Amino acid sequence: MNDLNRRAFLAAGAAAAAPLVLPLTAAGASTTAGVRRGRGGPVVISSGNGLRAVIKAMEEIKAGADPVDAVVAGVAIVEDDPDDMSVGYGGLPNEDGVVQLDSSVMHGPSHKAGAVAALENIRNPAQVALKVLRRTDHVLLVGAGALKFAKAHGFKEENLLTEKAREAWLRWKENLNADDDWLNDEQHVDRDARAERAEQLGIPWHYGTIHCAALNAAGDVSACTTTSGLSYKIPGRVGDSPIVGAGMFVDNEVGAAGATGRGEAVIQSCGAFQTVQHMAAGLEPEQACLKTLKWIADHTKRRSLLAASGRPNFNVTMYALRKDGLWGSASMLKGGSFTIHDGTDARRMASPALFE
Length: 356
What we know:
Shape: globular
CATH class: Alpha Beta
Distance between the termini: 5 Å
Helix content: 25-40%
CATH topology: Glutamine Phosphoribosylpyrophosphate, subunit 1, domain 1
Order of helices and strands: HEHHEEHEHHHEEEEHHHEEEEE
Number of strands: 13
């Protein structure tokens, strides 16, 4: 973290003491608590690959759609895109060449959630997660059960492995060796080295994922995270995206948060839940994201997950949207980005980094 970011982060942390009450007032308006306010809704935030998603979600909200329907409609554009190899149709497969998808959705006003994990042959897992939310008393369906549920609700099975993704998987298989996810006492996964080797060999590799959260003019919040998961993962591996409180969380009295990046780190930190709690305690969204990332960094102990400097060698990007319309994002390492639609226009922005 550079000196400016560090000073702002520490100052904000010192100011966070009491739960927030968030009336929808003008941005920048001073209050007795010294807390900056947002302009209210509508606002939509998404990960760096979500520019089309925030535009679509905003269109839906302005047309009167519930925010939960708006975010699911927004991420569907990316789920349907075969050129985005991190989500849905065309997503990179597991180590057996099978595309397994994960997603979670949460509706602020009802505080109800739905999720699916290790779902095969259905290109829009977020839509299936929304059905779980609305049509069941459950939260999470997985594997064969999730597929059976999707088919019962009219979702059509199809082969999600595109030729482009299949060729990438075959190149990865040909260069497997130490680049898989299996560990033994002598060999550990070095994420920096793994990504660098994949790039040198022309093999697409990533953590994947799109997150999207929306706030309407009435102050209601909803969110969704959807992914094809870690490239070439061990079959059945589930990351943070379908885990409510990890890859996505909503508290309609406070706001929403989500994550992309190394899912294992986000699960072990309850990343989205923690970020929403930081906002409830008084931190602005960007500072709440930074505080969660610092917690992750402080609790990363495995040597193979640490760079020579002692910082984590993997990236996580957090996104946060507060009930009053204030928004923010931050990344563990430099290079993260997010997209925002403030009701007027949509744009992509760089996420401030905990470690510069």
